[in-house]
Design a protein that fits this description.
Layout lengths: L2 H21 L4 H8 L3 H9 L6 H11 L3 H4 L6 H9 L1
């Protein structure tokens, strides 16, 4: 994965986390507190500045009541499923 691809991957995860957090009506601080990270870290995850550790991602998904596949690109995207079926 190139640097650009890694940044895009992190940004997509962050955008999806933010969307689901807002749908749940929660603040960054509320989610951060529940998963044991700082609000600043949560902000960085949502902005795609830093990679979210797997355990933190899973904890956030539990709180937001979404499957990790809905957050992580390639683990359930319709585009990826269609591409896999074509090969």
């Amino acid at each position: 994965m190139t640097g650009y691809e890694a940044r895009t991957f992190r940004a997509t995860i962050g955008r999806r986390l933010r969307e689901h957090r807002l749908k749940a009506g929660l603040t960054q601080e509320e989610v951060a507190w529940q998963i044991g990270v700082s609000q600043g870290s949560m902000s960085h995850y949502e902005q795609g500045r830093i990679e979210i550790p797997l355990g933190v991602l899973i904890a956030a998904c539990r709180i937001l009541r979404v499957a990790p596949a809905t957050i992580v690109p390639g683990l359930g995207d319709a585009y990826d499923v269609e591409a896999a079926q074509a090969s």
